[in-house]
From TrEMBL:
Native source organism of the sequence: Streptomyces roseus
Protein name: HTH tetR-type domain-containing protein
Keyword Hydrolase among UniProt keywords: no
A Pfam cross-reference name: TetR_N
Signal peptide residue numbers: none
PANTHER family (UniProt xref): HTH-TYPE TRANSCRIPTIONAL REGULATOR RUTR (PTHR30055), TRANSCRIPTIONAL REGULATORY PROTEIN (PTHR30055:SF151)
Ranges for region Disordered: 1-34
């Protein structure tokens, strides 16, 4: 899988690199005092503080007190690092789980989130899928408000890191709970995905009430389709 991160540039996702580790040609020679986890956390903090447009490897290195070339012992390109930062930020999103999924504890990726992911409700099944979908959407909106650069990177890079896959799995479980199938299920997935990603441009501007109303309309539409399918 490739993505055009810059005009005229085609690259392979960092998540498709074997082991997602430091570049193999340098792995045995990496300098002490740094690691990929620390660099990724610093990248998230710099992006939060200065924004995507001002991000550079030189600024990042200065904040870590190292040379810019030192960072390339751990990543091949700036784009690899931005992909890692994107998935790190997505790891902060609380993911609602179904009752069956709540009993299974997912493996914690080596690339830990900057802040611990909030725990799921004690009885997630009691909310029903509308409540869990509302919780997921509101959490994603907060994430985009806290990290405005996430929306741009989500559009620029393939979302195939461990936290992105966990997010998609949670959404798929929610859609399973609606009872929709076939074209209706596909349409519901597209509508929810577009709604969530569309929050990126308005996360800091749209009033909470407007967002909540739009989310209610979306959920009501899915409920209506589900009710029509079951004849209730």
């Amino acid at each position: 899988m490739v993505t055009a991160a810059d005009p005229g540039e085609t690259r392979t996702s960092v998540w498709l690199s074997p082991g997602h580790g430091a570049p193999a040609r340098r792995r045995s020679e990496v300098p002490s005092g740094l690691d990929r986890d620390r660099i990724t956390g610093a990248t998230v903090r710099l992006l939060d503080a200065e924004g995507l447009a001002r991000f550079s490897m030189r600024r990042l290195a200065a904040g870590l007190g190292v040379t810019a070339m030192s960072l390339y012992w751990y990543v091949d390109t700036k784009h690899d690092l931005l992909e890692l930062a994107l998935d790190r930020a997505l790891g902060e999103l609380p993911l609602p789980r179904t009752a069956s999924a709540a009993s299974a504890t997912p493996a914690v990726p080596a690339d830990r989130p900057v802040r611990a992911r909030a725990s799921a409700p004690a009885d997630p099944a009691a909310e029903g899928w509308p409540g869990r979908l509302r919780s997921l959407a509101c959490g994603y909106r907060r994430l985009l408000a806290e990290h405005p650069w996430v929306a741009a990177l989500t559009a620029a890079y393939p979302n195939i890191g461990p936290h992105a896959r966990a997010f998609d799995s949670a959404l798929q479980r929610l859609l399973d709970a609606t009872g929709l199938a076939g074209a209706c299920r596909t349409g519901a997935h597209l509508a929810v995905s577009q709604f969530l990603h569309g929050c990126g441009g308005a996360a800091r501007r749209a009033p909470d009430g407007d967002f909540a109303l739009a989310l209610d309309v979306l959920i009501a539409g899915i409920e209506a389709k589900a009710a029509a399918r079951t004849g209730t």
